[in-house]
Amino acid sequence: MPYPVAHVMFFVFCICAIAVYTIFVALLRRDISSRDIRHLLLLLFIGAFFALYPDITAGYNIIVNGTLEHTLIGPIPTHSLLFSSFALLFGAIIGYMLYREFGKAVYMGLFAESASLSHLLLDDLARGGIHYFYPISSRAISVFSYMDVGLACGNLINYMLASYAAVFYLIAVMMMALFALNHLGFEFRYRSEK
Ligand SMILES: [Zn+2]
Questions:
Q1: How far does residue 2's CA lie from ligand 1's centre (Å)?
Q2: Distance 117 CA to ligand 1 centre (A)
Q3: How far away, in angstroms, is 72 Cα from ligand 1 center?
Q4: Which of 15, 23, 142, 158 has the highest local Cβ count within 10 Å?
Q5: Carries keyword Isomerase (predicted)?
Q6: Which residues are placed with Cβ below 5 angstroms of ligand 1, an ion?
Q7: For the segment 52-69, what is each residue's pLDDT rounded down to a tens digit?
Q8: Closest Cα to residue 21, out of 188, 136, 190, 151?
């Protein structure tokens, strides 16, 4: 289990690396208002909260049960695609409360969802064994451990498929975050050479 701060930093500095670079450049050029800074801090706070969302039961279990259990609500795993999908809903509700616009609410939902999925991604990298497909399957799997040549048993096709799955998982989470940010005030575009 990575530390909470690792989840937040992974989402902000790795998944949203281009956004961090954009903010950094704007700050250096002093091309950013205090209103923009407040908006960015709010986005970062929402991203950080949802990057920790699958561990949301940790506080409850420490206080009520006196354990460090952080992956279950009763018998239900919180580290699953199903549980993560609620981040989309909660993020959209927060987005609607902030912007009063349906479109921006959806993009905030996608941003929250990417943060929540980045949590599963980092936990998978750190210790493996995520119940991604609960309740369809209760089997804990690790997308990243399948990339290992040894686990693919020398079968080149298995190895390639497993590698693609892990890379596409990572790309999907990053693209979701950047797509959302692109509609929440960021501009990522190619500048044509004159
Ligand atoms: Zn976790």
A1: 7
A2: 10
A3: 10
A4: 15
A5: no
A6: 55, 123
A7: 999 888 777 777 777 766
A8: 188
